[in-house]
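Hi V.,

Quick status before I head out on leave. The structure for the redesign project is tokenized and pasted below; the design run finished overnight.
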């Protein structure tokens, strides 16, 4: 007697949507708009028709991938997981690396889409408040929480220090001579040598 195979439990539309986006992200980052829904379906182990049960068309899927790449959740979670008992310089260096990875993820996606002719839609603040300003607020709050244990030693409140630190990170020169620990050192102690030493 042969045993009847059980089917895996079905996914909700939201779970299936998230799975398709997660599968499509690296493909869109590699191929841009040249990626096909057939490639995405094969990589996800589903039929192409399943993609179109969740997304109206490929453009909607690409927009969903871009929105996912821009979400700050991963960076915020990484920053929140940095141990507070480390020295402030080490915490900030880890935060800078997490934010650099976040920005590289966004750059890879936008670069691939731009190079394959995708027209970027205007980024407006969404009705649910989940636009660019909201994302920056989440990142700023995570960095401020990371800095807060050293609040007594700071010249400014932790949230203002976080703003200055993020401004420095997002405008930092892309030069290999300036490593993240050096950037953090200059941020915390200034560019002048300690004359007393």
């Amino acid at each position: 007697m042969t045993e009847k195979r059980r089917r895996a439990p079905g996914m909700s539309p939201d779970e299936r949507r998230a799975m398709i986006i997660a599968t499509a992200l690296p493909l869109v980052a590699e191929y841009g708009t040249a990626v096909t829904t057939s490639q995405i379906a094969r990589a996800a182990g589903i039929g192409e028709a399943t993609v179109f049960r969740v997304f109206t068309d490929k453009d909607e899927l690409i927009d969903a991938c871009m929105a996912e790449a821009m979400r700050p959740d991963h960076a915020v979670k990484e920053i929140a997981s940095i141990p507070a008992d480390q020295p402030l310089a080490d915490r900030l260096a880890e935060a800078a690396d997490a934010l650099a990875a976040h920005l590289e993820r966004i750059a890879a996606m936008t670069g691939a889409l731009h190079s394959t002719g995708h027209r970027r839609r205007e980024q407006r603040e969404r009705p649910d408040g989940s636009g660019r300003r909201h994302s920056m607020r989440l990142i700023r709050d995570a960095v401020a929480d990371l800095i807060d244990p050293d609040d007594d030693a700071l010249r400014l409140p932790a949230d203002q220090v976080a703003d200055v630190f993020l401004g420095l990170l997002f405008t930092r020169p892309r030069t290999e001579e300036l490593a993240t620990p050096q950037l953090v050192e200059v941020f915390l102690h200034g560019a002048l040598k300690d004359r007393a030493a």
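Above is the designed sequence. Residues 123-128 have pLDDT under 50 and may be disordered.

G. will cover questions while I'm gone.

Best,
W.
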